[in-house]
Design a protein that fits this description.
mainly alpha; 47% helix; 3-stranded antiparallel beta sheet; Glutamyl-tRNA Synthetase, domain 3; RNA-binding; Helicase, Ruva Protein, domain 3; 484 residues
RNA sequence: GGCCCCGUCGUCUAGUGGCCUAGGACUCUGGCUUCUCAAGCCAGCUACGAGGGUUCGAAUCCCUUCGGGGCUGCCA
Protein backbone atom coordinates (compact mmCIF):
# COMPACT_ATOMS: atom_id res chain seq x y z
CA UNK A 1 0.00 0.00 0.00
CA UNK A 2 1.61 3.21 -1.15
CA UNK A 3 1.00 6.26 0.98
CA UNK A 4 -1.01 9.03 -0.59
CA UNK A 5 1.26 11.88 -1.67
CA UNK A 6 0.83 15.04 0.39
CA UNK A 7 2.81 18.09 -0.69
CA UNK A 8 2.64 21.52 0.84
CA UNK A 9 3.14 25.08 -0.20
CA UNK A 10 4.09 27.08 2.87
CA UNK A 11 4.94 30.67 2.11
CA UNK A 12 5.65 33.35 4.64
CA UNK A 13 3.79 36.22 2.98
CA UNK A 14 5.80 39.28 3.94
CA UNK A 15 4.76 40.87 0.66
CA UNK A 16 3.11 39.86 -2.59
CA UNK A 17 3.89 36.35 -3.74
CA UNK A 18 6.78 36.47 -6.14
CA UNK A 19 8.06 34.46 -9.06
CA UNK A 20 10.15 32.13 -6.92
CA UNK A 21 7.27 31.38 -4.56
CA UNK A 22 4.98 30.59 -7.42
CA UNK A 23 7.44 28.33 -9.16
CA UNK A 24 7.61 26.33 -5.93
CA UNK A 25 3.83 26.39 -5.53
CA UNK A 26 3.41 25.26 -9.12
CA UNK A 27 5.71 22.27 -8.67
CA UNK A 28 4.04 21.31 -5.39
CA UNK A 29 0.67 21.56 -7.08
CA UNK A 30 1.69 19.70 -10.21
CA UNK A 31 3.26 16.89 -8.22
CA UNK A 32 0.21 16.50 -6.00
CA UNK A 33 -2.12 16.48 -8.99
CA UNK A 34 0.11 14.18 -11.01
CA UNK A 35 0.13 11.58 -8.27
CA UNK A 36 -3.50 12.01 -7.32
CA UNK A 37 -2.37 13.27 -3.93
CA UNK A 38 -3.17 16.36 -1.90
CA UNK A 39 -1.76 19.87 -1.84
CA UNK A 40 -1.71 21.47 1.59
CA UNK A 41 -1.51 25.25 1.69
CA UNK A 42 -0.03 26.47 4.96
CA UNK A 43 0.77 30.00 5.99
CA UNK A 44 3.99 30.49 7.89
CA UNK A 45 3.06 33.57 9.83
CA UNK A 46 4.91 33.08 13.08
CA UNK A 47 6.48 36.45 12.42
CA UNK A 48 3.33 38.54 12.72
CA UNK A 49 5.32 41.74 12.58
CA UNK A 50 6.05 41.17 8.92
CA UNK A 51 3.21 38.91 7.80
CA UNK A 52 -0.09 40.78 7.62
CA UNK A 53 -3.64 39.62 6.95
CA UNK A 54 -3.59 41.72 3.81
CA UNK A 55 -0.62 39.80 2.43
CA UNK A 56 -2.16 36.50 3.40
CA UNK A 57 -5.34 37.39 1.52
CA UNK A 58 -3.36 38.47 -1.50
CA UNK A 59 -1.44 35.20 -1.46
CA UNK A 60 -4.70 33.27 -1.43
CA UNK A 61 -6.04 35.38 -4.29
CA UNK A 62 -2.90 34.90 -6.36
CA UNK A 63 -3.06 31.14 -5.98
CA UNK A 64 -6.68 31.13 -7.08
CA UNK A 65 -5.98 33.37 -10.03
CA UNK A 66 -3.25 31.03 -11.20
CA UNK A 67 -5.55 28.07 -10.89
CA UNK A 68 -3.41 26.37 -8.27
CA UNK A 69 -6.12 24.89 -6.11
CA UNK A 70 -5.38 23.27 -2.76
CA UNK A 71 -7.04 20.49 -0.81
CA UNK A 72 -6.40 21.70 2.70
CA UNK A 73 -5.63 25.19 3.90
CA UNK A 74 -7.03 28.71 4.08
CA UNK A 75 -10.73 29.09 3.30
CA UNK A 76 -11.38 25.37 3.16
CA UNK A 77 -9.76 24.01 6.30
CA UNK A 78 -9.05 20.31 6.60
CA UNK A 79 -8.35 17.57 9.10
CA UNK A 80 -4.85 18.78 10.03
CA UNK A 81 -5.69 22.41 10.73
CA UNK A 82 -5.42 25.11 11.62
CA UNK A 83 -3.27 25.99 8.62
CA UNK A 84 -2.02 29.29 9.94
CA UNK A 85 1.00 28.81 12.12
CA UNK A 86 0.02 31.75 14.28
CA UNK A 87 -2.94 29.63 15.40
CA UNK A 88 -0.78 26.65 16.28
CA UNK A 89 1.43 28.17 18.96
CA UNK A 90 0.25 25.77 21.66
CA UNK A 91 1.28 22.84 19.51
CA UNK A 92 4.82 24.17 19.16
CA UNK A 93 5.01 24.87 22.89
CA UNK A 94 3.91 21.35 23.64
CA UNK A 95 6.65 19.84 21.52
CA UNK A 96 9.35 22.18 22.73
CA UNK A 97 8.49 21.25 26.30
CA UNK A 98 8.52 17.58 25.40
CA UNK A 99 11.95 17.86 23.82
CA UNK A 100 13.11 19.50 27.05
CA UNK A 101 11.59 16.75 29.17
CA UNK A 102 13.05 14.03 27.01
CA UNK A 103 16.52 15.55 27.07
CA UNK A 104 16.70 16.40 23.36
CA UNK A 105 16.72 20.11 24.05
CA UNK A 106 17.93 22.39 26.80
CA UNK A 107 17.40 25.89 28.10
CA UNK A 108 20.00 28.36 26.96
CA UNK A 109 20.56 31.53 28.94
CA UNK A 110 23.19 33.13 26.72
CA UNK A 111 22.31 36.64 25.63
CA UNK A 112 22.42 37.76 22.04
CA UNK A 113 25.41 39.97 22.83
CA UNK A 114 27.33 37.14 24.44
CA UNK A 115 26.62 34.87 21.50
CA UNK A 116 27.74 37.48 19.05
CA UNK A 117 30.97 38.08 20.95
CA UNK A 118 31.78 34.37 21.05
CA UNK A 119 30.94 33.96 17.38
CA UNK A 120 33.28 36.80 16.59
CA UNK A 121 36.05 35.04 18.47
CA UNK A 122 35.37 31.81 16.60
CA UNK A 123 35.71 33.62 13.35
CA UNK A 124 39.01 35.12 14.41
CA UNK A 125 40.33 31.68 15.34
CA UNK A 126 39.06 30.41 12.00
CA UNK A 127 36.67 28.03 13.64
CA UNK A 128 33.23 27.24 12.33
CA UNK A 129 30.96 29.82 13.93
CA UNK A 130 28.01 28.40 15.78
CA UNK A 131 26.69 27.75 19.22
CA UNK A 132 29.43 26.39 21.43
CA UNK A 133 27.22 24.32 23.72
CA UNK A 134 27.86 26.45 26.80
CA UNK A 135 24.43 25.83 28.35
CA UNK A 136 24.18 22.17 27.40
CA UNK A 137 24.85 20.81 30.84
CA UNK A 138 24.08 23.55 33.30
CA UNK A 139 24.07 22.62 36.99
CA UNK A 140 21.10 23.57 39.11
CA UNK A 141 23.23 26.22 40.79
CA UNK A 142 24.32 27.83 37.54
CA UNK A 143 20.79 27.82 36.28
CA UNK A 144 19.50 29.37 39.51
CA UNK A 145 22.12 32.07 39.18
CA UNK A 146 21.05 32.95 35.64
CA UNK A 147 17.43 33.03 36.67
CA UNK A 148 18.28 35.28 39.58
CA UNK A 149 20.00 37.61 37.11
CA UNK A 150 16.66 37.89 35.36
CA UNK A 151 17.74 36.02 32.26
CA UNK A 152 14.96 34.42 30.24
CA UNK A 153 16.01 31.24 28.45
CA UNK A 154 15.45 30.15 24.88
CA UNK A 155 14.99 26.48 24.13
CA UNK A 156 17.82 25.07 22.13
CA UNK A 157 18.00 21.73 20.34
CA UNK A 158 21.05 19.63 20.96
CA UNK A 159 22.72 18.15 17.91
CA UNK A 160 24.41 14.88 18.82
CA UNK A 161 27.77 13.99 17.32
CA UNK A 162 27.50 12.17 14.02
CA UNK A 163 26.04 12.99 10.67
CA UNK A 164 22.74 13.35 8.86
CA UNK A 165 22.32 11.59 5.59
CA UNK A 166 19.30 11.83 3.34
CA UNK A 167 18.41 11.37 -0.28
CA UNK A 168 17.25 14.50 -2.01
CA UNK A 169 14.96 13.60 -4.88
CA UNK A 170 16.70 16.10 -7.12
CA UNK A 171 20.28 16.07 -5.87
CA UNK A 172 20.79 12.52 -4.70
CA UNK A 173 22.42 11.62 -1.42
CA UNK A 174 23.50 14.54 0.74
CA UNK A 175 25.53 14.23 3.93
CA UNK A 176 26.06 16.79 6.66
CA UNK A 177 28.58 16.25 9.41
CA UNK A 178 27.12 17.54 12.68
CA UNK A 179 30.37 19.37 13.35
CA UNK A 180 28.92 21.94 11.01
CA UNK A 181 25.39 21.83 12.36
CA UNK A 182 25.45 23.63 15.69
CA UNK A 183 22.75 23.45 18.35
CA UNK A 184 19.89 25.63 17.20
CA UNK A 185 17.12 27.59 18.84
CA UNK A 186 13.64 26.10 18.75
CA UNK A 187 11.74 28.65 20.77
CA UNK A 188 12.31 32.19 21.91
CA UNK A 189 12.08 33.22 25.54
CA UNK A 190 8.60 34.58 24.90
CA UNK A 191 7.40 31.19 23.76
CA UNK A 192 7.25 31.96 20.03
CA UNK A 193 8.58 29.21 17.79
CA UNK A 194 11.27 29.49 15.17
CA UNK A 195 10.93 28.28 11.61
CA UNK A 196 12.96 25.14 12.21
CA UNK A 197 10.61 23.98 14.94
CA UNK A 198 7.33 24.99 13.35
CA UNK A 199 8.12 23.70 9.87
CA UNK A 200 9.22 20.29 11.09
CA UNK A 201 6.38 19.84 13.57
CA UNK A 202 3.79 20.88 11.01
CA UNK A 203 5.17 18.71 8.25
CA UNK A 204 4.92 15.73 10.55
CA UNK A 205 1.52 16.58 11.96
CA UNK A 206 0.13 17.39 8.54
CA UNK A 207 1.48 14.09 7.26
CA UNK A 208 3.49 15.71 4.50
CA UNK A 209 5.17 13.07 2.35
CA UNK A 210 7.09 15.33 -0.04
CA UNK A 211 8.75 18.62 0.77
CA UNK A 212 9.45 20.54 -2.42
CA UNK A 213 11.09 23.87 -1.60
CA UNK A 214 13.89 26.22 -2.56
CA UNK A 215 17.48 25.05 -2.38
CA UNK A 216 18.25 27.76 0.18
CA UNK A 217 16.65 25.42 2.71
CA UNK A 218 18.91 22.51 1.82
CA UNK A 219 21.37 23.16 4.61
CA UNK A 220 18.65 23.50 7.21
CA UNK A 221 17.38 20.01 6.46
CA UNK A 222 19.55 18.23 9.06
CA UNK A 223 17.98 20.42 11.73
CA UNK A 224 14.50 19.45 10.63
CA UNK A 225 15.40 15.81 10.57
CA UNK A 226 16.67 16.18 14.12
CA UNK A 227 13.24 17.46 15.14
CA UNK A 228 11.59 14.45 13.47
CA UNK A 229 13.86 12.19 15.48
CA UNK A 230 13.01 13.98 18.70
CA UNK A 231 9.33 13.63 17.87
CA UNK A 232 9.79 9.91 17.58
CA UNK A 233 9.07 9.69 13.88
CA UNK A 234 10.43 6.56 12.26
CA UNK A 235 12.99 7.26 9.50
CA UNK A 236 10.80 5.64 6.87
CA UNK A 237 8.11 8.17 7.72
CA UNK A 238 10.27 11.25 7.20
CA UNK A 239 9.04 13.30 4.29
CA UNK A 240 11.04 13.04 1.07
CA UNK A 241 12.93 16.19 0.26
CA UNK A 242 13.32 17.81 -3.14
CA UNK A 243 15.26 21.06 -3.17
CA UNK A 244 14.37 23.09 -6.22
CA UNK A 245 16.97 25.21 -7.97
CA UNK A 246 16.72 28.97 -7.69
CA UNK A 247 15.13 31.28 -10.17
CA UNK A 248 17.79 33.87 -10.93
CA UNK A 249 17.57 37.43 -12.14
CA UNK A 250 19.53 38.94 -14.99
CA UNK A 251 22.61 39.53 -12.88
CA UNK A 252 23.09 35.94 -11.85
CA UNK A 253 21.78 36.56 -8.37
CA UNK A 254 18.62 35.13 -6.92
CA UNK A 255 15.70 36.93 -8.52
CA UNK A 256 14.69 39.90 -6.42
CA UNK A 257 13.21 43.33 -6.70
CA UNK A 258 16.57 44.71 -7.69
CA UNK A 259 17.14 42.62 -10.79
CA UNK A 260 13.73 42.00 -12.26
CA UNK A 261 10.04 42.09 -11.68
CA UNK A 262 9.16 39.64 -8.98
CA UNK A 263 5.62 40.33 -7.89
CA UNK A 264 3.03 38.12 -9.55
CA UNK A 265 0.58 40.99 -9.15
CA UNK A 266 2.71 42.98 -11.57
CA UNK A 267 2.54 40.24 -14.20
CA UNK A 268 -1.20 40.16 -13.85
CA UNK A 269 -1.48 43.90 -14.37
CA UNK A 270 0.74 43.72 -17.43
CA UNK A 271 -1.63 41.25 -19.02
CA UNK A 272 0.19 37.96 -18.67
CA UNK A 273 -2.16 34.99 -18.71
CA UNK A 274 -2.02 32.77 -15.64
CA UNK A 275 -1.58 29.69 -17.80
CA UNK A 276 1.31 31.39 -19.63
CA UNK A 277 3.02 32.21 -16.36
CA UNK A 278 2.60 28.64 -15.20
CA UNK A 279 3.76 27.25 -18.53
CA UNK A 280 6.88 29.39 -18.52
CA UNK A 281 7.68 28.79 -14.86
CA UNK A 282 7.28 25.06 -15.34
CA UNK A 283 10.03 25.22 -17.94
CA UNK A 284 12.34 26.90 -15.45
CA UNK A 285 14.02 23.92 -13.91
CA UNK A 286 11.89 21.25 -15.47
CA UNK A 287 11.21 19.94 -18.95
CA UNK A 288 8.88 17.28 -20.24
CA UNK A 289 11.81 15.48 -21.84
CA UNK A 290 10.81 16.03 -25.42
CA UNK A 291 10.70 19.19 -27.50
CA UNK A 292 7.32 20.31 -26.26
CA UNK A 293 7.29 23.77 -24.76
CA UNK A 294 3.78 25.06 -25.15
CA UNK A 295 1.89 22.93 -22.70
CA UNK A 296 -1.45 23.22 -20.99
CA UNK A 297 -2.05 22.87 -17.29
CA UNK A 298 -3.53 19.44 -17.97
CA UNK A 299 -0.41 18.35 -19.81
CA UNK A 300 1.75 19.70 -17.02
CA UNK A 301 -0.16 17.60 -14.52
CA UNK A 302 0.14 14.45 -16.55
CA UNK A 303 3.81 14.94 -17.46
CA UNK A 304 5.29 16.42 -14.29
CA UNK A 305 7.54 14.43 -12.06
CA UNK A 306 10.19 15.46 -9.57
CA UNK A 307 12.89 13.26 -11.09
CA UNK A 308 12.96 15.44 -14.18
CA UNK A 309 13.58 18.62 -12.24
CA UNK A 310 17.00 20.09 -12.92
CA UNK A 311 19.46 20.76 -10.17
CA UNK A 312 21.01 23.88 -11.63
CA UNK A 313 19.61 27.39 -11.25
CA UNK A 314 17.70 29.00 -14.11
CA UNK A 315 17.67 32.60 -15.21
CA UNK A 316 14.32 34.27 -15.64
CA UNK A 317 13.85 35.44 -19.24
CA UNK A 318 11.08 37.98 -19.79
CA UNK A 319 11.37 37.64 -23.58
CA UNK A 320 10.54 33.98 -23.47
CA UNK A 321 7.65 34.54 -21.09
CA UNK A 322 6.32 37.09 -23.56
CA UNK A 323 6.69 34.68 -26.44
CA UNK A 324 4.71 32.04 -24.58
CA UNK A 325 2.14 34.59 -23.52
CA UNK A 326 1.70 35.64 -27.15
CA UNK A 327 1.20 32.02 -28.17
CA UNK A 328 -1.42 31.54 -25.47
CA UNK A 329 -3.25 34.71 -26.45
CA UNK A 330 -3.39 33.63 -30.08
CA UNK A 331 -4.86 30.32 -29.01
CA UNK A 332 -7.72 31.95 -27.08
CA UNK A 333 -11.27 31.75 -28.38
CA UNK A 334 -12.73 35.18 -29.09
CA UNK A 335 -15.13 34.96 -26.18
CA UNK A 336 -12.38 34.02 -23.79
CA UNK A 337 -10.14 36.72 -25.22
CA UNK A 338 -12.95 39.23 -24.79
CA UNK A 339 -13.55 38.25 -21.19
CA UNK A 340 -9.89 38.69 -20.36
CA UNK A 341 -9.34 41.89 -22.34
CA UNK A 342 -12.35 43.84 -21.10
CA UNK A 343 -10.98 44.65 -17.64
CA UNK A 344 -7.92 46.26 -19.23
CA UNK A 345 -10.06 48.46 -21.46
CA UNK A 346 -12.37 49.59 -18.72
CA UNK A 347 -9.69 50.26 -16.18
CA UNK A 348 -7.80 52.30 -18.79
CA UNK A 349 -11.06 54.19 -19.35
CA UNK A 350 -11.03 53.38 -23.05
CA UNK A 351 -14.57 52.11 -22.73
CA UNK A 352 -17.17 52.31 -19.99
CA UNK A 353 -18.59 48.92 -20.75
CA UNK A 354 -21.77 49.56 -22.71
CA UNK A 355 -23.17 46.81 -24.91
CA UNK A 356 -22.31 48.73 -28.08
CA UNK A 357 -18.73 49.19 -26.97
CA UNK A 358 -18.35 45.55 -26.06
CA UNK A 359 -19.86 44.51 -29.39
CA UNK A 360 -17.31 46.62 -31.24
CA UNK A 361 -14.43 45.30 -29.14
CA UNK A 362 -15.57 41.79 -29.85
CA UNK A 363 -15.52 42.45 -33.59
CA UNK A 364 -12.10 44.11 -33.39
CA UNK A 365 -10.37 41.45 -31.30
CA UNK A 366 -9.76 39.03 -34.16
CA UNK A 367 -7.71 41.59 -36.08
CA UNK A 368 -5.43 42.33 -33.12
CA UNK A 369 -5.18 38.89 -31.61
CA UNK A 370 -1.98 37.94 -33.36
CA UNK A 371 -0.51 41.38 -32.86
CA UNK A 372 -0.28 41.54 -29.11
CA UNK A 373 1.89 39.78 -26.63
CA UNK A 374 0.29 41.04 -23.43
CA UNK A 375 -3.38 41.75 -22.74
CA UNK A 376 -2.50 45.29 -21.70
CA UNK A 377 -1.69 46.05 -25.33
CA UNK A 378 -5.34 45.95 -26.29
CA UNK A 379 -5.49 49.47 -24.89
CA UNK A 380 -3.19 51.19 -27.41
CA UNK A 381 -4.36 48.81 -30.16
CA UNK A 382 -8.05 49.57 -29.86
CA UNK A 383 -7.94 53.08 -28.49
CA UNK A 384 -8.60 54.75 -31.84
CA UNK A 385 -11.98 53.09 -32.14
CA UNK A 386 -13.25 54.89 -29.09
CA UNK A 387 -12.20 58.50 -29.53
CA UNK A 388 -14.01 61.32 -31.31
CA UNK A 389 -10.98 62.56 -33.21
CA UNK A 390 -7.61 60.95 -33.45
CA UNK A 391 -4.52 62.74 -32.43
CA UNK A 392 -1.76 62.05 -34.93
CA UNK A 393 1.26 60.79 -33.06
CA UNK A 394 4.42 62.86 -32.98
CA UNK A 395 6.54 60.85 -35.38
CA UNK A 396 3.80 60.66 -38.01
CA UNK A 397 3.06 64.37 -38.15
CA UNK A 398 5.91 65.14 -40.53
CA UNK A 399 4.87 62.43 -42.96
CA UNK A 400 1.43 63.92 -43.22
CA UNK A 401 2.78 67.33 -44.05
CA UNK A 402 4.23 66.07 -47.30
CA UNK A 403 2.45 67.11 -50.40
CA UNK A 404 2.02 63.58 -51.66
CA UNK A 405 0.24 62.62 -48.49
CA UNK A 406 -2.38 65.28 -49.07
CA UNK A 407 -2.93 64.09 -52.64
CA UNK A 408 -3.37 60.57 -51.34
CA UNK A 409 -5.92 61.65 -48.79
CA UNK A 410 -8.05 63.64 -51.18
CA UNK A 411 -7.93 60.86 -53.75
CA UNK A 412 -8.99 58.46 -51.04
CA UNK A 413 -11.91 60.65 -50.13
CA UNK A 414 -13.14 60.74 -53.70
CA UNK A 415 -12.82 56.99 -53.91
CA UNK A 416 -14.52 56.22 -50.63
CA UNK A 417 -17.37 58.70 -50.48
CA UNK A 418 -19.39 57.11 -53.30
CA UNK A 419 -19.14 53.62 -51.79
CA UNK A 420 -22.50 52.09 -51.02
CA UNK A 421 -21.01 48.90 -49.59
CA UNK A 422 -18.81 49.55 -46.55
CA UNK A 423 -16.86 46.40 -45.95
CA UNK A 424 -13.13 45.80 -46.05
CA UNK A 425 -13.17 44.23 -49.50
CA UNK A 426 -14.96 47.22 -51.03
CA UNK A 427 -12.76 49.68 -49.18
CA UNK A 428 -9.63 47.92 -50.28
CA UNK A 429 -10.57 47.66 -53.95
CA UNK A 430 -11.70 51.28 -54.07
CA UNK A 431 -8.47 52.49 -52.54
CA UNK A 432 -6.32 50.22 -54.66
CA UNK A 433 -7.97 51.43 -57.81
CA UNK A 434 -7.58 55.08 -56.89
CA UNK A 435 -4.16 55.11 -55.32
CA UNK A 436 -2.20 52.25 -56.78
CA UNK A 437 -3.62 51.83 -60.26
CA UNK A 438 -4.45 55.44 -61.00
CA UNK A 439 -1.71 57.25 -59.10
CA UNK A 440 0.85 54.48 -59.51
CA UNK A 441 1.89 54.49 -55.88
CA UNK A 442 3.51 51.72 -53.99
CA UNK A 443 1.11 50.18 -51.49
CA UNK A 444 3.02 51.33 -48.45
CA UNK A 445 3.11 54.91 -49.69
CA UNK A 446 -0.52 54.76 -50.69
CA UNK A 447 -2.01 53.35 -47.52
CA UNK A 448 0.35 54.96 -45.06
CA UNK A 449 -1.31 58.39 -44.99
CA UNK A 450 -4.76 56.85 -44.81
CA UNK A 451 -3.67 54.68 -41.92
CA UNK A 452 -2.32 57.65 -40.03
CA UNK A 453 -5.45 59.67 -40.69
CA UNK A 454 -7.76 56.93 -39.53
CA UNK A 455 -5.83 55.46 -36.61
CA UNK A 456 -3.45 58.26 -35.68
CA UNK A 457 -0.43 56.04 -36.04
CA UNK A 458 1.69 54.47 -38.77
CA UNK A 459 1.36 51.22 -36.83
CA UNK A 460 -2.13 49.83 -36.54
CA UNK A 461 -4.33 46.80 -37.02
CA UNK A 462 -5.10 45.98 -40.67
CA UNK A 463 -6.36 49.20 -42.25
CA UNK A 464 -9.36 48.05 -44.28
CA UNK A 465 -10.79 45.92 -41.50
CA UNK A 466 -10.25 48.80 -39.10
CA UNK A 467 -12.13 51.19 -41.40
CA UNK A 468 -14.96 48.76 -41.82
CA UNK A 469 -15.39 48.49 -38.07
CA UNK A 470 -15.00 52.21 -37.55
CA UNK A 471 -17.78 52.91 -40.03
CA UNK A 472 -17.94 54.97 -43.15
CA UNK A 473 -18.92 58.22 -41.55
CA UNK A 474 -16.20 58.29 -38.95
CA UNK A 475 -13.52 56.99 -41.31
CA UNK A 476 -14.26 59.69 -43.86
CA UNK A 477 -14.46 62.38 -41.22
CA UNK A 478 -10.98 61.49 -40.02
CA UNK A 479 -9.53 61.71 -43.50
CA UNK A 480 -11.29 64.99 -44.15
CA UNK A 481 -9.94 66.43 -40.94
CA UNK A 482 -6.42 66.11 -42.29
CA UNK A 483 -7.09 67.29 -45.80
CA UNK A 484 -8.05 70.75 -44.68
C1' G B 1 37.28 30.99 6.15
C1' G B 2 34.17 26.36 6.75
C1' C B 3 30.11 23.28 5.03
C1' C B 4 26.69 22.23 1.10
C1' C B 5 24.75 22.71 -3.92
C1' C B 6 25.58 23.78 -9.05
C1' G B 7 28.43 24.24 -14.19
C1' U B 8 25.78 22.10 -22.48
C1' C B 9 24.53 27.97 -27.46
C1' G B 10 23.35 35.05 -24.93
C1' U B 11 18.92 32.54 -22.12
C1' C B 12 15.73 27.98 -20.95
C1' U B 13 16.81 23.15 -22.10
C1' A B 14 17.43 17.73 -24.75
C1' G B 15 21.32 14.49 -23.82
C1' U B 16 22.51 8.90 -18.43
C1' G B 17 29.52 5.70 -23.03
C1' G B 18 28.86 4.99 -29.56
C1' C B 19 22.23 7.32 -32.74
C1' C B 20 26.24 14.12 -31.16
C1' U B 21 30.38 16.74 -37.36
C1' A B 22 25.56 18.08 -29.90
C1' G B 23 18.85 18.52 -31.08
C1' G B 24 14.68 22.04 -29.80
C1' A B 25 12.75 26.80 -27.97
C1' C B 26 13.42 32.10 -26.91
C1' U B 27 16.57 36.14 -28.33
C1' C B 28 19.54 38.19 -32.29
C1' U B 29 20.84 38.67 -37.78
C1' G B 30 19.43 38.02 -42.97
C1' G B 31 15.58 36.67 -46.42
C1' C B 32 10.51 35.43 -48.14
C1' U B 33 5.44 37.02 -47.58
C1' U B 34 3.04 41.67 -47.07
C1' C B 35 -1.54 47.80 -46.60
C1' U B 36 1.85 49.28 -41.43
C1' C B 37 2.81 46.26 -37.28
C1' A B 38 2.50 41.46 -36.17
C1' A B 39 1.88 36.38 -37.32
C1' G B 40 3.83 32.64 -40.57
C1' C B 41 7.85 30.36 -43.43
C1' C B 42 13.21 29.74 -44.66
C1' A B 43 18.31 30.46 -43.49
C1' G B 44 22.33 31.90 -40.25
C1' C B 45 25.29 33.02 -35.69
C1' U B 46 26.62 30.88 -31.13
C1' A B 47 27.64 25.83 -26.31
C1' C B 48 29.66 20.65 -23.57
C1' G B 49 34.30 26.18 -17.92
C1' A B 50 39.67 24.17 -17.80
C1' G B 51 43.24 20.19 -17.09
C1' G B 52 44.19 15.28 -16.28
C1' G B 53 42.68 10.23 -16.30
C1' U B 54 39.35 5.44 -17.35
C1' U B 55 37.87 3.41 -22.25
C1' C B 56 38.43 1.00 -28.81
C1' G B 57 35.18 5.32 -27.94
C1' A B 58 33.18 10.60 -23.18
C1' A B 59 28.91 16.19 -22.94
C1' U B 60 27.92 11.55 -20.49
C1' C B 61 32.32 7.78 -15.50
C1' C B 62 36.64 9.30 -11.92
C1' C B 63 40.12 13.06 -9.99
C1' U B 64 41.89 17.98 -9.74
C1' U B 65 41.11 22.87 -10.70
C1' C B 66 38.41 27.29 -11.86
C1' G B 67 33.83 29.79 -11.69
C1' G B 68 28.80 30.76 -9.70
C1' G B 69 25.31 30.27 -5.71
C1' G B 70 23.39 29.06 -0.82
C1' C B 71 24.08 28.45 4.35
C1' U B 72 27.07 29.66 8.44
C1' G B 73 20.74 34.07 13.15
C1' C B 74 16.60 34.15 19.11
C1' C B 75 14.89 35.39 9.50
C1' A B 76 12.23 32.15 6.65
Amino acid sequence: MVKEVRTRFAPSPTGDLHVGNIRTALFDWAYARHTGGKLIFRIEDTDRERVTDEYINRAVETMKWLGLNWDEGPEIGGPCGPYLQSQRLDIYKHWAQKFLDDGFAYKCYCSTEELEARREKQRELNQAPGYDGKCRNLSADEEAKYVAEGRAPVIRMQMPAGETRFTDLIRGEVVFDHTFVPDFVLMRADGSPLYTLAVAVDDVLMKITHVLRGEDLLSSTPRQIRVYQAMGVAPEDYPHFAHLPFVMGQDNAKLSKRNGEVSIAWYREEGFLPEAICNYLALLGWSPGDDRENITMEELVSLFNVERVNSSPARFDMKKLEAINGDKIRALTIDDFLKRALPFLTSAKIITGTDEEIALVRKALPIIQERIVKLKEVVPMLGFFFVETVKVEEESVAKMAEEQALHVLSASLSALEPLSQWDHESIESALRAALIEKMGLKPRNAFGPVRIAVTGSHISPPLFESMELLGKERSIARIKALVR
